[in-house]
Amino acid sequence: MSEFAPFGGSDEEYASVRKHQAEVEADPDNFESWENYIKSSETLDGGLNRNSSPQALATFREAYDRFLHKFPLLFGYWKKYADMEFNIAGPESAEMVYERGCACITNSVDLWTDYCSFKMETTHDPQIVRDLFERGASLVGLDFLAHPFWDKYIEYEERQEAQDRIYAIHARVIRIPMHQYARYYERFRNLAHTRPLSEVVPADVLSRFQAEVEAESAAQGGGARPELEIERDIRAKIDAMYYEVFTATQQEVSKRWTYESEIKRPYFHVTELEHSQLNNWRKYLDFEEAEGDFDRAVSLYERCLVTCAFYDEFWFRYARWMAAQDGKDEETRHIYIRASIFVPISRPGIRMQWAYLEESCGRIDVAIDIHAAILMKLPDCVEVVVSWAHLQRRQNGLEAAVQVYRDQIDAPTVDLYTKAALVAEWAQLLWKVKGSAEDARAVFLKNSQWYGDSLVFWEKWFAFELDQSATGEEEKDTAERIKSVFDEFRTKSKLSGSVKQELARVYMNYLVQRGGKDAMTIFLEVDRDMFGPASISKSTIASKENGTTGGELDEASRRKAEARLFAFYETHTEPNTAAQGPADFN
């Protein structure tokens, strides 16, 4: 059943909407389908307005709400949605959209500027408008490209003819490394010359400058000086002080321009970024972290994670950096929560890291719920099942872990090859945690007839037998068991020849390094069988006798059967800084 609400109205009137809705349902990740869906909803009733039908308005809002739930970082659509709500239902509805948008993309200079501009035109209470500007300043004020926001704030105070506030805003801005820092300083200098000394600098600084001027006058001798001359000298000192602020800001801008000039796409989009862009963000983050200013580092991370929202590398980095700061546990948790919104669930690593954080904080139920939520979407994700089982092992013991495996193996939604891997992990658990090689071997033996086409199953079983330590007569038994497993694998499994050769090499290595007196006889037999021509291969002959030759795996099954399993943290590597072209999200 469709998750979209029924439209109402005639089929002819809503034919276009229904068509694009179906396309979105068929492929929720197709951005073009979403755009078409949005456009078709906007044109209902010949163009939406206050007099449009309730069905048309409901359809329009449904489309926008679902689109922005899927792509919350597209600030332009929040602005468009708010504008349409203003035309349809008035300022209160538009304000609710702006609030939702600014909550979803808190560091959007454009959206905050638009929201404040909207508030300037629709609210007559200056304090409400100023409070909104201050909210925006706390979130986007440090952005290198924040000048549109600050310009709008200054424009508002100019409308209010609040000269003291205009000066105060400029005094804040000249300390922020921004793209257009110089023009703010020039305006600030001009304003400073028109303001009383008591407003230009703090009282303690003014007292210090007054004392310095008096001391300099006394040193030069002469009588009392006119007040205007004294004020002129004090203003000269103030001007010199603020020029030092300007030069310091200029230096900070220059240091950041190296990275800012390389940012080609400072906004979110569903398409991939170039490798060079990712490298630039990495270097920029390295720089800002080294500078040691927490607020500026957070501001840059937030900017980066709008542009790079689909790259979990940067979410991992942000969470690790935040976790290293004192007293930032809750902030770290929020990073993982947000990452789970943007990083596709097909890459569950960031969600699992979140679960590990919750477990480390004693929130075991939350950690379990995160695992369960992932498996609702990815029932065949072995990595998550194994992680869940070991979570239960750590917290509730071996039987709880085994129960996780049993539940997943018995589930009808779980794939055959997934079950094979889980059986192998179950056996590993019995061996390494319970310490019972007999119980582990029994699991392998019991299930070999069902999961004989799984590479993971055979590799785990073979590794298990190889790792059994034995001496004397026991070593002979171990050798026989290893040979038996290998013979069954090479004659009964439908896995490809190249995969069988990989395991054969492992067995041959065992024969050389741990084999007995007759080991080389077996070695040469395996060598002929696995690496010789098909005409002399016993595996080929045995396969024909067992009737398995004609039952080769199809391509899709073969990929599943021969897939190797890795934990997400095992795939973390240093980025390839020499890579060129689009950077795959995976």
TrEMBL record:
GO terms for molecular function: pre-mRNA 5'-splice site binding. The keyword Repeat applies. GO terms for biological process: mRNA 5'-splice site recognition. The lineage of its organism: Eukaryota, Fungi, Dikarya, Ascomycota, Pezizomycotina. InterPro entries: HAT, HAT_PRP39_C, TPR-like_helical_dom_sf. Keywords: mRNA processing, mRNA splicing, Nucleus, Repeat. This is Pre-mRNA-processing factor 39. It comes from the Eukaryota. It holds the Pfam family HAT_PRP39_C. One of its GO terms (cellular component) is commitment complex. Belongs to the PRP39 family. It is found in: Nucleus.
